[in-house]
Amino acid sequence: TGLTDDEPASTLFEAEEGMTSVEILDFEHTSYLNIEAEVYYPEEEGILQVEHFGVHVREDGAVLYGMIIESVEQCDRDNISLDHLSRVLVDVHQDTSRIMDSVLSMYQRSLLQIMFLGNSESR
């Protein structure tokens, strides 16, 4: 999301690993925004991670994320331990923060810096 296609008429857009795809699904200018994101951040050797989730941003500043977890390590979605789930949630929180940061305007980022006393990355 941090890059712009310099040749939009071309059928190929190459980007380095670590990019995301964000698609606007629905919005009302003054009320809400619904987007869908696919994450392609590099992971450690041997880790396969497919992240595809939805984000809903409301006018009051509330941000809601939604995703379905199919499996974690060798556990299917009906047998995921709290330990594994907590690791997934930390990773999802970091990835969604990076995505939201890439779609915010400079003005919105400056407001977050004020609200979080210069530490908006830890929101």
Overview of this protein structure:
- This protein has 123 residues and is α+β, with helices and mostly antiparallel strands.
- It contains two helices and six strands.
- Strands 1-2-3-4 form a four-stranded antiparallel sheet.
- The chain is globular.
Question: How large, in whole angstroms, is the Cα Rg?
Answer: 16 Å
Counting structural domains, the number is 1
Work out the number of β strands: 6
Biggest sheet: strands, sense, closure?
Answer: 4 strands, antiparallel
Task: Provide the residue-averaged pLDDT.
Answer: 81
Measured as a percent range, the helix fraction is: 25-40%
Order of helices and strands: EEEEEEHH
Distance between the termini: 20 Å
Number of helices: 2
User: What is the beta-strand fraction?
Assistant: 25-35%
The low-confidence parts are none
The computed structural class is: alpha+beta
The geometry reads as globular
**Largest sheet: spatial strand order:** 1-2-3-4
Highlighted features:
four-stranded antiparallel β-sheet, globular, two-stranded antiparallel sheet, alpha+beta, 123 residues, 26% helix
SSE topology sketch:
Blueprint: E1 20-28, E2 32-39, E3 51-58, E4 63-66, E5 71-72, E6 75-76, H1 82-103, H2 106-115
Antiparallel strand pairs: 1-2, 2-3, 3-4, 5-6
